[in-house]
Amino acid sequence: MTGPTRAAEAARLDALEKSGWGLPFRLVQPRNLAFWVYALGVGGGALAMVRYFGPGAHFYRPALTGGVVLFGLYLVPWLLLLRHHNRYTAQPGSLLAAAFAWGGLAATFWIALPANTALLEIWAKAGGTEFAQDWAAGLTAPINEEFAKALGLVLLIGLAPRLVRSAYDGFIIGAFVGLGFQVFEDVLYVYNGATQTFGVGQLGASVQIFLIRGVSGIVSHALFSAIFCAGLMWVLGRTPGERDVPRGVLTMLAAMVFHFAWDDMGGLSGGIGVLAALLPFVIAVVELVALFSVLRHAARQEQAWIRAVLEPEVELGVLDRPLLDAVSGLRRDRRKYGKQVHSRRKARHLLEAAADLARELARGRGQETGGVLHARAELVRLRG
Fold it and tell me: Residue range 47-57: average pLDDT?
Protein backbone atom coordinates (compact mmCIF):
# COMPACT_ATOMS: atom_id res chain seq x y z
CA MET A 1 0.00 0.00 0.00
CA THR A 2 1.51 3.30 -1.11
CA GLY A 3 0.73 6.78 0.17
CA PRO A 4 -1.20 9.42 -1.77
CA THR A 5 0.71 11.80 -4.03
CA ARG A 6 1.18 15.44 -3.13
CA ALA A 7 -0.96 16.40 -6.14
CA ALA A 8 -3.86 14.28 -4.86
CA GLU A 9 -3.55 15.73 -1.34
CA ALA A 10 -3.46 19.28 -2.75
CA ALA A 11 -6.53 18.57 -4.91
CA ARG A 12 -8.37 17.26 -1.83
CA LEU A 13 -7.62 20.41 0.19
CA ASP A 14 -8.59 22.59 -2.78
CA ALA A 15 -11.92 20.77 -3.13
CA LEU A 16 -12.67 21.15 0.58
CA GLU A 17 -11.80 24.84 0.45
CA LYS A 18 -13.90 25.58 -2.63
CA SER A 19 -16.91 23.54 -1.56
CA GLY A 20 -16.90 24.55 2.11
CA TRP A 21 -17.94 20.98 2.89
CA GLY A 22 -17.72 20.18 6.58
CA LEU A 23 -17.92 23.79 7.79
CA PRO A 24 -20.63 24.55 10.39
CA PHE A 25 -23.58 26.86 9.72
CA ARG A 26 -24.36 29.68 12.14
CA LEU A 27 -27.68 31.44 11.66
CA VAL A 28 -27.46 34.15 14.33
CA GLN A 29 -24.95 36.72 13.07
CA PRO A 30 -25.80 40.13 14.59
CA ARG A 31 -23.16 41.92 12.49
CA ASN A 32 -24.46 40.48 9.22
CA LEU A 33 -27.24 42.42 7.45
CA ALA A 34 -28.43 39.19 5.79
CA PHE A 35 -29.33 37.83 9.25
CA TRP A 36 -31.54 40.82 10.05
CA VAL A 37 -33.33 40.64 6.70
CA TYR A 38 -33.85 36.91 7.25
CA ALA A 39 -35.12 37.50 10.80
CA LEU A 40 -37.44 40.26 9.57
CA GLY A 41 -38.84 38.02 6.85
CA VAL A 42 -39.40 34.94 9.02
CA GLY A 43 -40.65 37.00 11.97
CA GLY A 44 -42.94 39.07 9.76
CA GLY A 45 -44.21 35.91 8.10
CA ALA A 46 -44.94 34.28 11.44
CA LEU A 47 -46.84 37.36 12.60
CA ALA A 48 -48.81 37.51 9.33
CA MET A 49 -49.67 33.81 9.69
CA VAL A 50 -50.99 34.32 13.21
CA ARG A 51 -53.07 37.28 12.05
CA TYR A 52 -54.45 35.28 9.12
CA PHE A 53 -55.41 32.17 11.07
CA GLY A 54 -56.03 33.79 14.44
CA PRO A 55 -59.59 35.18 14.10
CA GLY A 56 -61.06 31.87 12.95
CA ALA A 57 -58.65 29.46 14.60
CA HIS A 58 -61.16 28.32 17.23
CA PHE A 59 -64.09 27.75 14.86
CA TYR A 60 -61.98 26.13 12.14
CA ARG A 61 -59.79 24.12 14.50
CA PRO A 62 -60.71 20.72 12.98
CA ALA A 63 -59.63 21.90 9.52
CA LEU A 64 -56.41 23.46 10.80
CA THR A 65 -55.57 20.43 12.92
CA GLY A 66 -56.31 18.06 10.05
CA GLY A 67 -54.22 20.14 7.64
CA VAL A 68 -51.24 20.35 9.99
CA VAL A 69 -51.30 16.61 10.79
CA LEU A 70 -51.85 15.41 7.22
CA PHE A 71 -49.26 17.66 5.62
CA GLY A 72 -46.90 17.05 8.51
CA LEU A 73 -47.01 13.35 7.64
CA TYR A 74 -46.72 14.25 3.96
CA LEU A 75 -43.50 16.06 4.80
CA VAL A 76 -41.75 12.89 6.03
CA PRO A 77 -41.20 11.12 2.67
CA TRP A 78 -40.14 14.45 1.14
CA LEU A 79 -37.46 14.91 3.79
CA LEU A 80 -36.21 11.36 3.25
CA LEU A 81 -36.05 11.93 -0.50
CA LEU A 82 -34.19 15.24 -0.18
CA ARG A 83 -31.84 13.75 2.41
CA HIS A 84 -30.97 11.12 -0.16
CA HIS A 85 -30.21 13.77 -2.77
CA ASN A 86 -28.18 15.85 -0.30
CA ARG A 87 -25.53 13.21 -0.91
CA TYR A 88 -22.41 14.83 -2.34
CA THR A 89 -20.87 17.75 -0.40
CA ALA A 90 -23.89 17.71 1.88
CA GLN A 91 -25.34 20.89 3.36
CA PRO A 92 -25.80 21.04 7.19
CA GLY A 93 -29.26 20.24 8.46
CA SER A 94 -29.47 23.58 10.27
CA LEU A 95 -28.97 25.47 7.00
CA LEU A 96 -31.66 23.40 5.27
CA ALA A 97 -34.02 24.01 8.21
CA ALA A 98 -33.42 27.75 7.79
CA ALA A 99 -34.27 27.39 4.10
CA PHE A 100 -37.49 25.52 4.94
CA ALA A 101 -38.49 28.20 7.47
CA TRP A 102 -37.94 30.97 4.92
CA GLY A 103 -40.10 29.18 2.37
CA GLY A 104 -42.88 28.40 4.84
CA LEU A 105 -43.10 31.70 6.68
CA ALA A 106 -41.35 34.55 4.87
CA ALA A 107 -41.95 33.59 1.23
CA THR A 108 -45.54 32.44 1.86
CA PHE A 109 -47.00 34.92 4.33
CA TRP A 110 -44.63 37.90 4.32
CA ILE A 111 -44.17 38.27 0.54
CA ALA A 112 -46.38 36.07 -1.64
CA LEU A 113 -49.73 36.41 0.13
CA PRO A 114 -49.95 40.23 0.05
CA ALA A 115 -48.15 40.51 -3.31
CA ASN A 116 -50.42 37.95 -4.99
CA THR A 117 -53.54 39.60 -3.62
CA ALA A 118 -52.49 42.99 -5.00
CA LEU A 119 -51.41 41.71 -8.42
CA LEU A 120 -54.50 39.54 -8.88
CA GLU A 121 -56.66 42.63 -8.37
CA ILE A 122 -54.63 44.49 -11.00
CA TRP A 123 -55.12 41.71 -13.57
CA ALA A 124 -58.87 41.64 -12.85
CA LYS A 125 -59.15 45.39 -13.39
CA ALA A 126 -56.93 45.39 -16.47
CA GLY A 127 -58.31 42.35 -18.31
CA GLY A 128 -61.72 41.72 -16.82
CA THR A 129 -63.15 38.89 -14.75
CA GLU A 130 -62.96 36.20 -17.45
CA PHE A 131 -59.33 37.01 -18.30
CA ALA A 132 -58.40 37.02 -14.61
CA GLN A 133 -60.08 33.67 -14.07
CA ASP A 134 -58.15 32.02 -16.91
CA TRP A 135 -54.74 33.69 -16.70
CA ALA A 136 -54.25 35.84 -13.58
CA ALA A 137 -52.88 33.09 -11.35
CA GLY A 138 -50.24 32.05 -13.89
CA LEU A 139 -49.23 35.65 -14.55
CA THR A 140 -48.91 36.36 -10.81
CA ALA A 141 -47.52 33.40 -8.86
CA PRO A 142 -44.45 32.59 -11.02
CA ILE A 143 -43.20 36.15 -10.55
CA ASN A 144 -44.00 36.82 -6.90
CA GLU A 145 -43.47 33.34 -5.51
CA GLU A 146 -40.35 32.20 -7.37
CA PHE A 147 -38.44 35.39 -6.57
CA ALA A 148 -39.74 35.36 -2.98
CA LYS A 149 -38.40 31.84 -2.51
CA ALA A 150 -35.12 32.60 -4.29
CA LEU A 151 -34.55 35.52 -1.93
CA GLY A 152 -34.10 32.89 0.78
CA LEU A 153 -31.22 31.38 -1.20
CA VAL A 154 -29.63 34.82 -1.62
CA LEU A 155 -29.84 35.48 2.13
CA LEU A 156 -28.32 32.07 2.91
CA ILE A 157 -25.44 32.93 0.58
CA GLY A 158 -24.96 36.04 2.68
CA LEU A 159 -25.10 33.99 5.89
CA ALA A 160 -22.92 31.10 4.67
CA PRO A 161 -20.89 32.27 1.66
CA ARG A 162 -18.37 29.42 1.96
CA LEU A 163 -21.07 26.74 2.18
CA VAL A 164 -23.40 27.79 -0.65
CA ARG A 165 -21.19 27.58 -3.72
CA SER A 166 -22.45 25.34 -6.52
CA ALA A 167 -25.56 24.97 -8.67
CA TYR A 168 -26.27 21.72 -6.82
CA ASP A 169 -26.27 23.66 -3.54
CA GLY A 170 -28.86 25.93 -5.12
CA PHE A 171 -30.85 22.89 -6.25
CA ILE A 172 -30.97 21.33 -2.76
CA ILE A 173 -31.57 24.59 -0.88
CA GLY A 174 -34.20 25.64 -3.42
CA ALA A 175 -35.99 22.33 -2.95
CA PHE A 176 -36.15 22.89 0.83
CA VAL A 177 -37.37 26.47 0.41
CA GLY A 178 -40.01 25.28 -2.05
CA LEU A 179 -41.03 22.42 0.24
CA GLY A 180 -41.57 24.87 3.10
CA PHE A 181 -43.68 27.07 0.84
CA GLN A 182 -45.62 24.07 -0.43
CA VAL A 183 -46.50 22.63 3.00
CA PHE A 184 -47.53 25.96 4.54
CA GLU A 185 -49.52 26.92 1.44
CA ASP A 186 -51.31 23.56 1.54
CA VAL A 187 -52.39 24.17 5.13
CA LEU A 188 -53.57 27.61 3.97
CA TYR A 189 -55.67 25.92 1.27
CA VAL A 190 -57.23 23.62 3.86
CA TYR A 191 -58.15 26.60 6.05
CA ASN A 192 -59.57 28.60 3.13
CA GLY A 193 -61.58 25.57 2.01
CA ALA A 194 -63.14 25.34 5.45
CA THR A 195 -64.05 29.04 5.46
CA GLN A 196 -65.70 28.74 2.03
CA THR A 197 -68.04 26.01 3.32
CA PHE A 198 -68.62 27.94 6.57
CA GLY A 199 -67.09 25.15 8.62
CA VAL A 200 -69.26 22.32 7.29
CA GLY A 201 -67.48 18.95 6.90
CA GLN A 202 -64.09 20.30 7.85
CA LEU A 203 -62.26 17.00 8.27
CA GLY A 204 -63.63 15.53 5.05
CA ALA A 205 -62.65 18.66 3.14
CA SER A 206 -59.18 18.52 4.70
CA VAL A 207 -58.66 14.96 3.46
CA GLN A 208 -59.93 15.87 -0.01
CA ILE A 209 -57.57 18.85 -0.31
CA PHE A 210 -54.74 16.72 1.08
CA LEU A 211 -55.24 14.10 -1.64
CA ILE A 212 -55.44 16.67 -4.45
CA ARG A 213 -52.58 18.87 -3.26
CA GLY A 214 -50.51 15.89 -2.19
CA VAL A 215 -50.55 14.29 -5.63
CA SER A 216 -49.99 17.57 -7.50
CA GLY A 217 -47.27 18.50 -4.99
CA ILE A 218 -44.91 15.99 -6.60
CA VAL A 219 -44.42 18.51 -9.43
CA SER A 220 -45.10 21.70 -7.52
CA HIS A 221 -43.12 24.24 -5.48
CA ALA A 222 -40.23 22.00 -4.41
CA LEU A 223 -39.58 21.20 -8.07
CA PHE A 224 -40.04 24.81 -9.26
CA SER A 225 -37.66 26.20 -6.66
CA ALA A 226 -35.02 23.49 -7.11
CA ILE A 227 -34.85 24.31 -10.83
CA PHE A 228 -35.08 28.08 -10.33
CA CYS A 229 -32.39 28.24 -7.64
CA ALA A 230 -30.01 25.99 -9.58
CA GLY A 231 -30.38 28.43 -12.47
CA LEU A 232 -29.75 31.37 -10.17
CA MET A 233 -26.50 29.78 -8.98
CA TRP A 234 -25.39 29.31 -12.59
CA VAL A 235 -26.02 33.01 -13.16
CA LEU A 236 -24.11 34.00 -10.02
CA GLY A 237 -21.25 31.60 -10.77
CA ARG A 238 -19.92 31.28 -7.23
CA THR A 239 -17.59 28.42 -8.20
CA PRO A 240 -14.75 29.03 -10.70
CA GLY A 241 -15.69 27.67 -14.10
CA GLU A 242 -19.33 26.99 -13.25
CA ARG A 243 -20.84 30.33 -14.27
CA ASP A 244 -23.15 29.96 -17.29
CA VAL A 245 -25.50 32.93 -17.58
CA PRO A 246 -27.50 31.72 -20.64
CA ARG A 247 -28.09 28.31 -19.05
CA GLY A 248 -28.97 29.92 -15.72
CA VAL A 249 -31.47 32.36 -17.22
CA LEU A 250 -33.11 29.67 -19.35
CA THR A 251 -33.34 27.37 -16.32
CA MET A 252 -34.99 30.08 -14.22
CA LEU A 253 -37.42 30.89 -17.05
CA ALA A 254 -38.23 27.18 -17.41
CA ALA A 255 -39.20 27.01 -13.73
CA MET A 256 -41.45 30.04 -14.15
CA VAL A 257 -43.04 28.58 -17.30
CA PHE A 258 -43.76 25.32 -15.46
CA HIS A 259 -45.32 27.29 -12.62
CA PHE A 260 -47.40 29.31 -15.11
CA ALA A 261 -48.58 26.17 -16.93
CA TRP A 262 -49.59 24.47 -13.70
CA ASP A 263 -51.55 27.46 -12.41
CA ASP A 264 -53.26 28.28 -15.72
CA MET A 265 -54.10 24.79 -16.92
CA GLY A 266 -57.72 25.80 -17.37
CA GLY A 267 -56.82 28.64 -19.72
CA LEU A 268 -54.31 26.50 -21.64
CA SER A 269 -56.86 23.69 -22.17
CA GLY A 270 -59.38 26.16 -23.59
CA GLY A 271 -62.20 24.35 -21.85
CA ILE A 272 -61.68 21.20 -23.98
CA GLY A 273 -62.42 18.24 -21.72
CA VAL A 274 -59.96 15.74 -23.18
CA LEU A 275 -57.16 18.30 -23.22
CA ALA A 276 -57.94 19.38 -19.66
CA ALA A 277 -57.68 15.74 -18.56
CA LEU A 278 -54.41 15.02 -20.38
CA LEU A 279 -52.61 18.32 -19.80
CA PRO A 280 -51.64 17.70 -16.15
CA PHE A 281 -49.88 14.44 -17.07
CA VAL A 282 -48.09 16.00 -20.05
CA ILE A 283 -46.88 18.95 -17.96
CA ALA A 284 -45.79 16.63 -15.13
CA VAL A 285 -43.72 14.47 -17.49
CA VAL A 286 -42.03 17.52 -19.06
CA GLU A 287 -41.28 18.95 -15.60
CA LEU A 288 -39.74 15.72 -14.32
CA VAL A 289 -37.57 15.34 -17.43
CA ALA A 290 -36.36 18.93 -16.96
CA LEU A 291 -35.79 18.34 -13.24
CA PHE A 292 -33.52 15.34 -13.76
CA SER A 293 -31.67 17.12 -16.54
CA VAL A 294 -30.96 20.08 -14.26
CA LEU A 295 -29.96 17.72 -11.44
CA ARG A 296 -27.44 15.87 -13.63
CA HIS A 297 -25.84 19.07 -14.90
CA ALA A 298 -25.80 20.69 -11.47
CA ALA A 299 -24.23 17.62 -9.85
CA ARG A 300 -21.10 17.67 -12.02
CA GLN A 301 -19.18 20.10 -9.83
CA GLU A 302 -20.17 18.25 -6.67
CA GLN A 303 -19.11 14.95 -8.20
CA ALA A 304 -15.72 16.43 -9.06
CA TRP A 305 -15.30 17.66 -5.48
CA ILE A 306 -16.13 14.34 -3.83
CA ARG A 307 -13.83 12.54 -6.27
CA ALA A 308 -11.01 14.89 -5.31
CA VAL A 309 -11.70 14.32 -1.60
CA LEU A 310 -11.58 10.53 -1.97
CA GLU A 311 -8.85 10.23 -4.63
CA PRO A 312 -6.01 9.96 -2.05
CA GLU A 313 -7.92 7.07 -0.46
CA VAL A 314 -7.76 5.21 -3.79
CA GLU A 315 -3.98 5.70 -3.84
CA LEU A 316 -3.88 4.39 -0.25
CA GLY A 317 -5.84 1.32 -1.34
CA VAL A 318 -8.77 2.06 0.99
CA LEU A 319 -11.24 2.05 -1.91
CA ASP A 320 -10.97 1.12 -5.56
CA ARG A 321 -11.91 2.95 -8.77
CA PRO A 322 -15.32 1.32 -9.27
CA LEU A 323 -16.36 2.28 -5.73
CA LEU A 324 -15.08 5.83 -6.25
CA ASP A 325 -17.07 6.07 -9.49
CA ALA A 326 -20.19 4.83 -7.73
CA VAL A 327 -20.01 7.07 -4.64
CA SER A 328 -19.31 10.15 -6.76
CA GLY A 329 -21.68 9.21 -9.58
CA LEU A 330 -25.36 9.12 -10.39
CA ARG A 331 -27.92 6.39 -9.76
CA ARG A 332 -26.91 4.43 -12.85
CA ASP A 333 -23.32 4.33 -11.54
CA ARG A 334 -24.48 2.93 -8.22
CA ARG A 335 -26.62 0.30 -9.97
CA LYS A 336 -23.66 -0.68 -12.13
CA TYR A 337 -21.49 -1.06 -9.02
CA GLY A 338 -24.12 -3.29 -7.40
CA LYS A 339 -23.88 -5.62 -10.38
CA GLN A 340 -20.08 -5.62 -10.22
CA VAL A 341 -19.98 -6.77 -6.61
CA HIS A 342 -22.89 -9.21 -7.24
CA SER A 343 -24.72 -8.03 -4.14
CA ARG A 344 -26.93 -4.95 -3.84
CA ARG A 345 -26.77 -5.20 -0.06
CA LYS A 346 -22.98 -5.26 0.06
CA ALA A 347 -22.78 -2.47 -2.52
CA ARG A 348 -25.11 -0.32 -0.39
CA HIS A 349 -22.98 -0.87 2.73
CA LEU A 350 -19.77 -0.05 0.85
CA LEU A 351 -21.29 3.12 -0.64
CA GLU A 352 -22.48 4.25 2.78
CA ALA A 353 -19.06 3.56 4.28
CA ALA A 354 -17.29 5.47 1.49
CA ALA A 355 -19.68 8.40 1.95
CA ASP A 356 -19.05 8.32 5.72
CA LEU A 357 -15.30 8.48 5.09
CA ALA A 358 -15.75 11.45 2.76
CA ARG A 359 -17.84 13.26 5.38
CA GLU A 360 -15.26 12.61 8.11
CA LEU A 361 -12.49 13.90 5.84
CA ALA A 362 -14.56 17.05 5.24
CA ARG A 363 -15.19 17.57 8.96
CA GLY A 364 -11.50 17.11 9.67
CA ARG A 365 -10.55 19.41 6.76
CA GLY A 366 -8.40 16.61 5.34
CA GLN A 367 -6.58 15.84 8.61
CA GLU A 368 -6.13 12.40 10.18
CA THR A 369 -8.78 12.72 12.90
CA GLY A 370 -10.18 9.90 15.00
CA GLY A 371 -13.35 9.95 12.91
CA VAL A 372 -11.35 9.60 9.69
CA LEU A 373 -9.33 6.67 11.06
CA HIS A 374 -12.47 4.90 12.27
CA ALA A 375 -14.34 5.44 8.97
CA ARG A 376 -11.32 4.28 6.98
CA ALA A 377 -10.93 1.14 9.09
CA GLU A 378 -14.64 0.36 8.72
CA LEU A 379 -14.45 0.68 4.94
CA VAL A 380 -11.40 -1.59 4.79
CA ARG A 381 -13.24 -4.15 6.96
CA LEU A 382 -16.31 -4.12 4.71
CA ARG A 383 -14.19 -4.57 1.62
CA GLY A 384 -12.72 -7.66 3.23
Answer: 91
- pLDDT tens, position by position, 250-274: 999 999 999 999 998 888 888 787 8
User: What tens digit of pLDDT does each residue of 320-364 get?
Assistant: 899 999 999 888 888 888 888 888 888 899 999 999 999 999 999
Q: Which domain holds residue 258?
A: 29-303
Phi–psi pair at 50, nearest 5 degrees = -65, -40
Residue 2: its pLDDT value, please?
Answer: 62
Long-range contacts from 296-300, C-beta under 8 angstroms, 24+ separation: 296/330, 297/167, 297/247, 298/166, 298/167, 298/168, 298/170, 298/171, 298/230, 298/233, 299/88, 299/168, 299/330
The answer to whether residues 202 and 334 belong to one domain is no
Which of 145, 137, 142, 73 lies closest to 106, judged by CA? 145
Q: Treating both helix axes as pointing N-terminal to C-terminal, what angle do 137-159 and 113-131 enclose, rounded to 10 degrees?
A: 160
% residues pLDDT > 70 (the chain) = 99
Same domain (yes/no): 165, 67: yes
Whether residues 367 and 273 share a domain: the answer is: no
Question: Looking at residue 104, what DSSP letter applies?
Answer: I
Helix/strand/coil for 255: helix
CA distance 304 to 23: 19
Q: What gap in Å lies between CA 189 and CA 68, rounded to an integer?
A: 11
Give ∠ CA 340-342-345 in degrees, rounded to 5. Answer: 110
Q: Tell which residue, 160, 187, 191, has the closest CA to residue 97.
A: 160
Residue 22 lies inside a defined structural domain of this protein: no
Is 8 within 8 Å of 311 (Cβ atoms)?
yes
In a domain, residue 20? The reply is no
How do residues 61-74 score in pLDDT, each as one tens digit?
888 999 999 999 99
Closest CA to 120 of 131, 110, 109, 111: 131
19, part of any domain: no
Counting the structural domains of the chain, the total is 2
Dist CA 238 CA 281 (whole Å): 36
330 and 258 co-located in one domain: no
Mean pLDDT for 159-170 is 95
Domain membership flag for residue 365? yes
